[in-house]
């Protein structure tokens, strides 16, 4: 899962010209589709060292060496709902 999470962060950085740094996978879920869909909660470090959680969705067809970031967005934590 770590390699998929790193892929998600790298793709987000490339697409958004961002400088997020992968820290760890917090949560992962897999759905079997035409390949596999991975739902990841990833902790990243922003410039300046602030850590934040993001959610990512990655579609993978390993037999085709295909991997695509579907979305990457900030995760909403319970403390942010108050």
Number of helices: 2
CATH topology: Nuclear Transport Factor 2, Chain: A
Question: Level of helix content?
Answer: 10-25%
CATH architectural name:
Roll
Give the beta-strand count. 4
Strand order of the largest sheet: 1-2-3-4
The major beta sheet can be summarized as: 4 strands, antiparallel
Rg to the nearest angstrom? 13 Å
Number of self-contained structural domains: 1
Which class best fits the helix and strand makeup?
alpha+beta
The residue-averaged pLDDT reads: 93
- Can you tell me the CATH class? Alpha Beta
What's the shape? globular
What pattern of helices and strands is seen along the backbone?
A: HEEEEH
Distance between the termini: 31 Å
Low-confidence stretches: none
Strand content: over 45%
Structure, explained:
It contains 2 helices and 4 strands; from the N terminus they run H-E-E-E-E-H. By secondary structure, the protein is of the alpha+beta class. The chain is globular and about 40 Å long. It starts with a helix and ends with a helix. The mean pLDDT is 93.
Brief account:
The protein is built from two helices and four strands; from the N terminus they run H-E-E-E-E-H.
Highlighted features:
82 residues; alpha+beta; Nuclear Transport Factor 2, Chain: A; four-stranded antiparallel sheet; 2 helices; 4 strands
